[in-house]
Amino acid sequence: MQKISRNVYAENSFRGCNPGFVVTSEGVVMIDTPQMPADAIWWRDEIAKQGPVRYLINTEPHGDHFAGNYFFEGTVVAHQGTREAILAASVEQFKERLKQSDPDSLPLVKNYSYRPPAITFSEQMTLYVGNHTFQLINLPGHTPYQIAVYIPEERVVFTSDNVFCRVQAWLHEALPHKWLDSLRRLEQLEADVLVPGHGSICDPSYIREMGAFIQDWIDAVSGAIGQGMSLEEAQEKISFLDRYPMEPGSEPMAQFVQYMNVARLYQVLKK
Ligand SMILES: [Zn+2]
Fold first, then answer.
1. Could you give the angle at which helices 176-188 and 254-270 cross, rounded to 10 degrees?
2. Distance 170 CA to ligand 1 centre (A)
3. To which H or E segment does residue 259 belong?
4. How far is the CA of 130 from the centre of ligand 1 (A)?
5. CA–CA gap between residue 191 and residue 204 (Å, rounded)
6. Ligand 1 mean position to 167 CA, how many Å?
7. Given 86, 179, 225, 242, which is the most exposed site by the fewest CB atoms within 10 A?
8. Which CATH number is 221's domain given?
């Protein structure tokens, strides 16, 4: 657990996303939850030392950000699209994946259920808790429902998966051009610290490198389409695996992620 500003903590060594929390004068506000049950329980005990959880913000519709909600108190807040994804998610599939990745944790999820948001929004909302302001801003990119959480008093922004800091990015549901626009909006926030969805905690100077990566992906797939390649040919030819490592633990999915990224961009850019 890293203390990244006066009242903000984040963790980037869990399997799954980088969750964080803010200690306000009226309780704790969490941003995303650990995916693995044992991590979630450890995280819950650490947070309990700082006060009760008032709100829990989910920044996107993928399970590595919301699967841990079950282990926490607090009112869940997210984009409307994230709520719909959580309602549609299968508990059985979640348990099946755990059986593969961490069978010892199965007893911890005996009565497991997803905890969907009670409060949703679609463009922007602001939460005031104690002395802190939480600006929740829909920034489509990695998915249409991506949100950033900006805490001006701490000069911190949680970018969710619009930023993968020096690890491979997942583009399987991406809106690539909107993603570039969203990165430009992130650059305008007055922040000193960026908590990316995955990878190491960084600062706003990394946003350009992230944008260059997305632009290179767009250029590679548009180029392949322009040369008349089929999807399969593009998937054979295009790989950015030499650019960044996979996150620890997800190395076996490296090639699969490249294929999915090409497939998504091919579908979006062919139109
Ligand atoms: Zn994601």
1. 100
2. 7
3. helix 254-270
4. 30
5. 7
6. 13
7. 242
8. 3.60.15.10
Rounded Cα distance, 271 and 267, in Å:
7
For the chain, 271 residues long, give each residue's pLDDT as a single digit of tens: 999 999 999 999 999 999 999 999 999 999 999 999 999 999 999 999 999 999 999 999 999 999 999 999 999 999 999 999 999 999 999 999 999 989 999 999 999 999 999 999 999 999 999 999 999 999 999 999 999 999 999 999 999 999 999 999 999 999 999 999 999 999 999 999 999 999 999 999 999 999 999 999 999 999 999 999 999 999 999 999 999 999 998 999 999 999 999 999 999 999 8
Contact indicator for 147, 189 with CB cutoff of 8 Å: no
Read off the pTM: 0.96
Domain that holds residue 105: 2-270
Q: How far is the CA of 64 from the centre of ligand 1 (A)?
A: 7
